[in-house]
Specification:
Length: 304
């Protein structure tokens, strides 16, 4: 039981990061209709900038985090204006392919600007842990500080974002744009500005997700360009256009990965090592076979 509880806590911490990433995809997709494959590049830039500000510039950790998010948000806005805005009215797959090219450019730029030496972000949690439940032979359920930090910070940011989208005028304008761009234009909403803002928010969320992932010292894992694509199963599981689905899908994928990592080597070693990286995609395929639009996705109805 202690092993299961530890896996669940770890899975919720990782799932919160997946939820942040999935929401960053959804924000951009709902506003522009583009599935942004450049998110891994924005995530990596967020980690590198945070490391630079915290270590090289000597800023406090929280100041480095905020500044890194702002810089990545500005980069995302520039990318949207230069590379994505001209694709308005073009086929959806064309814009998606453009984001793949943007990803390549961002990765090259990131590793040219910041050398590949070992990095840290000087986070306050490091590898510290506390004992949630003590046993006869010691700590039965150890919990890392960064796991709690990931979950609390991610959920707080997502709750604040949800409140802002439903209560503020700009948030309501973004929602109106995501529902119908032509109607939003007719109501006097600056749709182009909403496009830029959605990319800025998506970039900032991706940067924060990368920073939280690197907060346990695994900067190398956070700067793996393929990590952000782990959010795709969460995105598709919850529904590609649903913010609620992105959060639920992220948490579920985190739990599935953690539990698989704990029990698969014991009960199904024949599946091979690192099977926890495959499990989310298998779950994604099964869900798509049953619910093609995900758990909370909007069903597309075509009248003939």
């Amino acid at each position: 039981m202690s092993t299961l509880i530890t896996s669940i806590i770890t899975g919720l911490g990782s799932g919160a990061v997946y939820a942040l990433l999935a929401v960053s995809f959804v924000i951009i997709f709902r506003a522009t209709g583009v599935l942004n494959f450049a998110q891994p590049g924005l995530l990596i830039l967020g980690v590198f900038f945070c490391s630079y500000f915290a270590v090289n510039s000597g800023l406090p950790f929280w100041a480095a985090v905020v500044l890194a998010m702002v810089v990545v948000a500005l980069i995302a806005m520039v990318v949207e204006r230069i590379a994505i805005r001209p694709q308005v009215g073009q086929p959806v797959f064309a814009a998606a392919l453009v984001t793949v090219g943007v990803l390549t450019i961002l990765l090259i730029a990131a590793f040219r600007l910041f050398d590949s030496a070992a990095r840290t972000i000087n986070d306050p949690w490091q590898l510290h842990q506390f004992c949630l439940v003590s046993g006869e032979t010691g700590c039965a359920i150890p919990v890392y500080h960064n796991t709690i930090a990931r979950f609390v910070i991610s959920m707080a940011v997502l709750a604040l974002l949800g409140w802002w989208l439903t209560r503020s005028r700009v948030g309501l304008a973004m929602r109106a744009t995501s529902l119908d761009q032509e109607t939003a234009l007719a109501q006097g909403i600056d749709v182009g500005r909403m496009f830029s803002l959605s990319w800025a928010i998506g970039g900032a969320l991706a940067a924060l997700a990368g920073i939280l992932l690197a907060a346990n010292g695994s900067v190398a894992q956070a700067t793996d360009g393929l990590f952000a694509l782990v959010a795709l199963p969460a995105l598709i599981l919850g529904g590609i256009d649903s913010l609620k689905g992105a959060v639920v899908g992220g948490l579920l994928i985190g739990l599935i990965s953690a539990i698989t990592s704990t029990y698969q080597p014991i009960h199904a070693p024949w599946l091979g090592p690192n099977f926890e990286n495959v499990a989310p995609y298998l779950v994604m395929i099964l869900v798509l076979l049953i619910r093609p639009y995900g758990l909370y996705g909007t069903k597309e109805v075509q009248r003939v």
